[in-house]
Amino acid sequence: MPAGSSREIELANLSITLDCNRSCSYCFARGVEVRERTMRRATFLDALDFLSRSGIPEVRLLGGEPTLHPDFLWFVERSIENGFKPVLFSNGLLSARTAADLQRFRSTDVQIVINVNDPDSQSIKETQAQRDTWSRLAAFCMLGFNIHKPNTSLDFLVDLTEKFELRRSIRLGLAHPRLDGSNDYLLPKNYPQVGERIHDFYGKARQRGIRVEFDCGFVPCMFPAALLKTLIADVGTFVSGCGPIPDILPDGTVTHCYPLASVSRCSLDKKNVSAGLKRKLEYPLQLYRKLGIYQECLQCPLKKGGVCGGGCLSAAMQRLRSASNGVSSPLSTKSPAQRKGSHPDFEKSIASRRKTVERPAQAVQSQFVIPYIDQPPEFWDQIKEEFGPHIKSVYFPLPGTMVGSGRPPQPHRYLHKFLSESLFRFSALINPVILERPIREIVRPLVDTVRGIDDRYGLTDVTVTNVALALAIKENIPSLRTVASTLMDISSTNQLLMVENAFDVIVPGSRIMRDLRSLQDLRKAFHGKIRLIVNEACLPGCPYRVQHFFEMARNTIAFPDSLCAHLLEQKPWMRLTGAWVLPQHLHCYDGLCDELKLAGRVTLNDPAKYRRVLAAYLNRQPLLPSEIGGGPASVLEPIEIDEVFYARTLRCDHQCDRCTLCSAYYEESCMRTGVRKRLAIGRDIDRIVQHRGR
Amino acid sequence: MASGSCFRCHPAVAWSVEKSSIILFRSGTNDAIELRHPESALWDFLSRGIQMERITAMMCVLRSSTQQSAELWIKRRTAEWLRAGWLIQGDRIG
Predict the structure, then answer these.
(1) CA-based nearest residue to A541, from A492, A602, A605, A482
(2) Are both A13-284 and A363-655 of the same fold?
(3) Residue-level pLDDT at A528
């Protein structure tokens, strides 16, 4: 056993690799900059020395996914040899070989905390892989769960622990923000709701003899009084604090914790002991320790008395404001400790944090639902690598000919391979603008088909255009979320009464995509999620739309004309009134939606364009309206849309018959870009060609 | 208060709005200061870039004082904050 000196840090995490085979939206380890992504053996031995000098008995191996490190087993063996107890924090997606390797150890020597996600957000493949791990390594494993949504049910953790006879402890963590707010995290305003959930869960776990352990950042005021009493009585389960539990990164640098990695960091050397390290890591942060996650924390007796630390410091620092006039943020002034060992990540983090201060972080964390296009696995691997954490799911039309999907049939050469092998989550579309057979005849076979696909590949949700179908899916496959297609044109709160209990997600009708007030009303009134299509170009309330979508779904033409073409020929400025949102204007919708959807099964089937448009929307980089792949009613001319104009269209009364805002903007933009001249010449050429034809 | 006076929050200063105060932080010097009413209101107005004439009018109301008294009070506070490095003289307010 390592010699014990007086310890100031009880625990330390060894992050041995940043590579991971999962892409959880709440992950705060992603994006941390290091010189080396995987830890060398020598660095690991230095870290063991540090733990030994500091009297820390556990070697907590984290990632990324630690089992992906090629020397992972060597690390476990060295830890045991040196008298440490390795604790492995894994996502449980272990290969059979890794599981077999771990079985060689005694379960009293090695502990594995399997961090699971909400079952609804995991693919069947992930769930199956975890179950295989539990079956093989039950005696080693306990469950861990990071809460990043306020309404998450926790009961499944107890059920899984019992079913697989796992160790009878469950670790609960709160998803904390990185300092730049770029991950999905639990907002402190939602803590009390989570506290209620934990109250129920804690009672059940306790009844069945399962111990619940709390990670950092929990605050007493989030719990109902009855639970708080129990927690205090169950000594050792709950300590309200905020680190440091230092993370020793693969390159040998040490951070206060992942969320604060950009501002509190130093190097591990041969002499560090925990007390000195703690001082170094705390120094740049001590100024902000007054802060708590709530405005009330400053006067709270529990914080004053040291009973509560005020929650996660990174979460508390999200409340900081600074001059938004382009000057550097307060945090960029380096402390003496950082002047010595400053990290390039520091300034970058501040720069992105400044953005967060100026614009709410919510939409920056948006999750995108993206279309399937028929490309080989390499394309999807690249999409996963580049954009994985931001992709909620990939949608694809229901295979077969039972119903159309609002688009002409698209190639599906790689679809089966994609669904079988890719690590994305999947959404199915059953969204013809009308179902072509009576609903009572078609519901049953449709539900059976969806169930078959769900069993085979795993689905997260199904987008439909019919309430009865949605209700039938909910009744028969309760694990699936139902999504109301934009073609249902749900645009007002009274329509919500008509679809009550049928949908978990609503994609609002295109008629309110430029009407922030209506979107706000819908958002307030609907308890589920709002998903906005960002690059749909349809005119709001277009009277041609139903027939157009009907024809399109039955057509074999790859790019069918729009029925509104003649209208747009006469009034081309109406294209400016379409339902699209440019990436650079997404911030206008911050707080109005939970998810964003990219249309483009047809219009983005060029892989290069697909990547370009997706990247632009994810990073909010400017695009012209002609570049977003919005279909035939799109703005075709390469005109720029300035923010003032766009913002006005979001708050106007949409009385286009009495207003000249869009027509004047269109004319002026075309003149400015020379488009009008080119259009006029084009029309002249058309006329000459037609004349000659006659 | 001279109508031409203008200030900016020091670029190294951050602040948090608390239940009944505002805390200013300056990391370079590791300084923090808690402003209570009516100082917190003045900081809030300055940070929002509100014109000094309007700030003076609002401070008259908040402090139940005459314009002259409000001007003098603002002048003292801003001078103090300038000296302490919370504010800097700028070409525009806020």
Answers:
(1) A492
(2) yes
(3) 87
Query: What's the confidence (pLDDT) of residue A364?
Result: 37
Convert A175-214 to b/e letters by CB count within 10 Å (16 or more is b).
bbbbbbbbbbbbebebbeebbebbbebbeebeeeebebeb
pLDDT of residue A336: 31
B30 vs A328: CB contact, 8 Å cut-off?
no
Please provide the DSSP assignment of A540-608 as one string: TT-TTHHHHHHHHHH---SSPPPTTHHHHHH-GGGGGGSS---GGGGGGGTTS-SEEE---TTTT-SHH
pLDDT band at B2 (very low <50, low <70, confident <90, very high): very low
Q: What is the pLDDT of residue A331?
A: 40
Q: CB–CB of A287 and B25 under 8 A?
A: yes
Pairing of strands B13-17, A321-322: antiparallel
Half-sphere exposure of B8 (CA within 13 A, CB side): 15
Cα(A392)–Cα(A650) distance, rounded to whole angstroms?
27
pLDDT above 90 covers a percentage of chain B that reads 57
The structure tokens listed for A427 are 């959404």
* B19, B26, B94 member nearest A330 (Cβ): B26
**3-class SS at A59?**
strand
Could you check whether the bond before residue A64 is cis, i.e. omega within 30 degrees of 0? yes
Q: What is the pLDDT of residue A238?
A: 62
Record: contact B11-A284, CB cut-off 8 A: no
The rounded distance, in Å, linking the Cα atoms of A453 and A476 is 14
Fill in the DSSP letter of residue A176: P
* Average pLDDT score over residue span B40-67: 91
Complex ipTM, two decimals? Answer: 0.89
Residue type, A103: Q
| Sign of the CA dihedral with A455 first, then A461, A466, and A467 last | positive
Can you read off the two tokens belonging to residue B63? 């402090």
Buried b (16+ CB within 10 A) or exposed e, A655-677: ebeeeeebbebbeebbeeeebbe
The pLDDT assigned to A9 comes to: 63
Place of tokens 């092998």: A421
Q: Which of B25, B26, B47, B92 to mutate against chain A (most A CBs within 10 Å)?
A: B25
Which of 3.20.20.70, 3.30.390.10, 3.40.800.20, 3.30.70.270 would CATH assign to domain A13-284? Answer: 3.20.20.70
CB-CB under 8 Å, B21 with A330: no
Question: Within chain A, which residues score under 50 in pLDDT?
Answer: 1-7, 324-365, 677, 681, 684-685, 688-689, 691-694
A279 neighbourhood in chain B, CB within 8 Å: none
Q: Measuring CA to CA, how many Å separate A593 from each of A269, A506, A535, A597, B7?
A: 47, 10, 15, 11, 38
Cα–Cα distance for residue pair A348/A344, rounded to 1 Å? 7
User: Tell me, what's the pLDDT at A689?
Assistant: 47
The DSSP string of B13-30 is EEEEE-SS-EEEEETTTT
CA distance A331 to A348: 11
Q: How far is B71 from chain A (nearest CA, A)?
A: 24
Interface contact flag, A323 B25, Cβ < 8 Å: no
- How far apart CA A653 and CA A565 sit, in angstroms, is 25
CATH topology of domain A363-655: TIM Barrel (3.20.20)
Annotated domain spans of chain A: 13-284, 363-655
d(CA A378, CA A611) in angstroms, rounded, equals 13
CB pair distance less than 8 Å for B23 and A299 = no
pLDDT at residue A62 in the model:
94
Tokens representing A385 are 């690598």
Identify all chain A residues contacting B25, using CB atoms and an 8 Å cutoff. 287-288, 320, 330
Q: Which of A74, A171, A75, A70 is nearest to A115 (CA)?
A: A171
Q: How many CB atoms lie within 10 A of CB A344?
A: 9
